[in-house]
Amino acid sequence: MATTTSSIKKPWITEKATAGEAANQYVFVVDQGASKPEIKKAIAALYKVDVVAVNVVNRPSKRKRFGGFRKGFQAGYRKAIVTVKEGQKIDTH
User: Fold this and answer.
1) What's the pLDDT tens digit per position in 23-36?
2) Which of 21, 38, 40, 64 is deepest in the core (most CB within 10 A)?
3) List of domains in the chain
4) Does the pLDDT of residue 3 top 70, yes or no?
């Protein structure tokens, strides 16, 4: 089980993620073993906001080819889409 603050790795800054900020939704890369309640506590403690909902997306690792012969894997990750209370904001930049 991960500790609350170490379950959040970094904010996920993409065009789609920043468009979600208009709807009070923020995206973070989180630890693979982090549960929704752990993520909720960590975001609330770290950014001092009220978290309404947490949705998670698991992206598995993918097999990749580098050049003609070398093969490897692109690492998988877990994203959390966090919805905060209306009128509150998180500064992720």
Assistant:
1) 999 999 999 999 99
2) 38
3) 5-84 (3.30.70.330)
4) no
